Amino acid sequence: MNHIPVKQLLADPDIYIGSEVDVKGWVRTRRGNKNVAFIALNDGSSIKNIQIVVDFAKIPEDSLKDVTTGASLHVKGMAVASQGKGQAIEVQADEIEVYGTASVADYPLQKKGHSLEFLREIANLRPRTNTFGAVLRIRHTLAYAIHKFFNDRGFYYFHTPLITASDAEGAGAQFQVTTLPLEDLPRTEDGKVDYDQDFFGKMACLTVSGQLEGELGATALGCIYTFGPTFRAENSNTPRHLSEFWMIEPEMAFYEIEDNMDLAEEFVKYCISYALEHNREDIEFLAEHFDKDLIDRLNFVVENDFVRLPYTEGIKILEESGKKFEFPVYWGVDLASEHERYLVEQHFKKPVILTDYPKEIKAFYMKLNDDGKTVRAMDVLFPKIGEIIGGSQREENYDKLKGRMQELGLQGMDWYLDTRKYGTVPHSGFGLGFERLILFVTGMQNIRDVIPFPRYPNNCEF
Ligand code: ATP
Ligand code: MN
Questions:
Q1: Is the beta carbon of 268 within 6 A of some atom in ligand 1?
Q2: From the CA of 281, how far away is ligand 2's center (Å)?
């Protein structure tokens, strides 16, 4: 590669000043006077641009008519110390080649300050904005930090299937995968759809969670994690739900619920610190433009212990708060986001790990406590987000788990029960919604703005 990434030029000006450089990128802005043009060139490597100075004595002004916002350029020139303030280095152009023009008449990203709603409609182009460049670089860094965190601790990256035929995951409504002709479905004698004739010979869906298969991995490899897309066909039009989102699901043999909480807390703190360290400029940009308290909030979470609180005590606090909630609070209720946020933002003013939920509102595989009423669940609740992690210690007792599955009418899962039938062990795990973590780290308000191409009800563009 003969060109130098903008990020590298800006990071080490002393290396480049005084030498010929090649830079390539897209024009962000162009300004100037009758003698010279200043082009802010961005190549996506950094939130910052490199300033290109064009002296019309060297390059005639009329040869620059295609150098407009959005056009792509190859610039050759001398790197010099910048006279202007705001940057240490700039490039005095000797040659400019325009790779591709962007017509002023219709390139949609002419000016700054487009609304996030508008940018969502042009998600094919929004990665070229400062805001989405920052968010997407942070997204990358967090993905890398996640792999690094687990790899450094001896966890194996375990790939669970995206297409599954187990309808008992229970975490949410599923999208069906089929090759049957929908306009002319094959039927059995009793009029039901004949799935024997479907691609897999049975009904199949996209996964809502890799956990059950993750448990198969953990009870063989010790500690594993998944990191992949999951799909939920719920009609949730909220700023915290997507139909296609990425989830990280560690699963650990020999971990009890306390170990699970320790890991979850260490893990999110690690990811946030990693982004603070490696995406400082992007986070500062987002803080300045969207959320003045962002950096304080991130530091606060990294520096403070999370509160650990049983569900029953959480309910008591909510009942005694005297606050009028939209959804009423009572023991047994599945907490809504407003309840979670009250505990976190008003009462404790800290992240909260809520534990020991009523078994009725949690999944069948969670370990029953001695009280017979609650299970060893743990949800990590964050300011502004609500639930960011859901996890539990798993029921490792074959008879108890089988009994619970029978109560709930879950069938055809002997493959799962085998983990308890043969060499069962205490084990635990959790699921972190990747986009919820990115929401928190970027300070963005809407989950549709932290994934390049969001999928949600009535939207499957790009
Ligand atoms: P919620 O109550 O917020 O809808 P949930 O309890 O249904 O979430 P889980 O099944 O526990 O979610 O999934 C584990 C994690 O995945 C959640 O803690 C959350 O971070 C994330 N998550 C769940 N549903 C979605 C979604 N539709 N879009 C994005 N992230 C999600
Ligand atoms: Mn949950």
A1: no
A2: 33
Nearest ligand to the C-alpha atom of residue 249: 1
- Which ligand has the shortest distance to the CA of 242? 1
What's this model's pTM, rounded to 2 decimal places? 0.96
436 lines ligand 1 (CB under 6 A): yes
pLDDT of residue 308: 98
Strands 386-393 and 427-433: antiparallel
Q: Cα-flanking dihedrals φ and ψ of residue 395, to 5°?
A: -70, 115
Would strands 72-81 and 20-32 be described as parallel, antiparallel, or unpaired? antiparallel
Residue 114 structure tokens: 């487009």
| Cβ of residue 433 lying under 6 Å from some atom of ligand 1 | yes
> With 70 as the cut, is the pLDDT of residue 171 above it?
no
Please state the length of the chain: 462
Cα of 444 to ligand 1 centre, how many Å?
17
For residue 240, report the distance from its CA to the centre of ligand 1, in Å. 8
Among 214, 247, 226, 221, residue whose Cα is nearest residue 394: 214
- Specify the residue with its C-alpha closest to ligand 1, atom 25: 241
Tell me which residue has its CA closest to atom 30 in ligand 1.
433
The pLDDT, as a whole number, for residue 262 is: 98
Ligand 1 atom at minimal distance to the Cα of residue 386: 3
DSSP string, 335-348: PPHHHHHIIIIIII
Rounded distance, CA 305 to CA 15, Å? 43
What confidence score (pLDDT) does residue 411 get? Answer: 87
pLDDT tens column, 181-203: 999 999 999 999 999 999 999 99
Rounded mean pLDDT of the chain? 95
Note whether 436 and 385 are within 8 A (CB): yes
Give the residue, by CA position, lying nearest to ligand 1 atom 18: 389
CA 232 to ligand 1: nearest atom: 27
State the Cα angle at 161 between 414 and 164, rounded to 5°: 55
227-233, long-range: CB within 8 Å, 24+ apart, which pairs?
Answer: 227/143, 227/146, 227/147, 227/157, 227/434, 228/159, 228/160, 228/162, 229/162, 230/206, 231/162, 231/174, 231/175, 231/206, 231/207, 232/171, 232/172, 232/173, 232/174, 232/208, 233/172, 233/173, 233/174, 233/175
What number is the average pLDDT over the span 79-107? 94
Cβ proximity of 51 and 84 under 8 Å: yes
pLDDT for res 166: 78
d(CA 413, CA 410): 7
Cα 449 to chain centroid distance, Å, stands at: 10
Contact 242 CB / ligand 1 (< 6 Å): yes
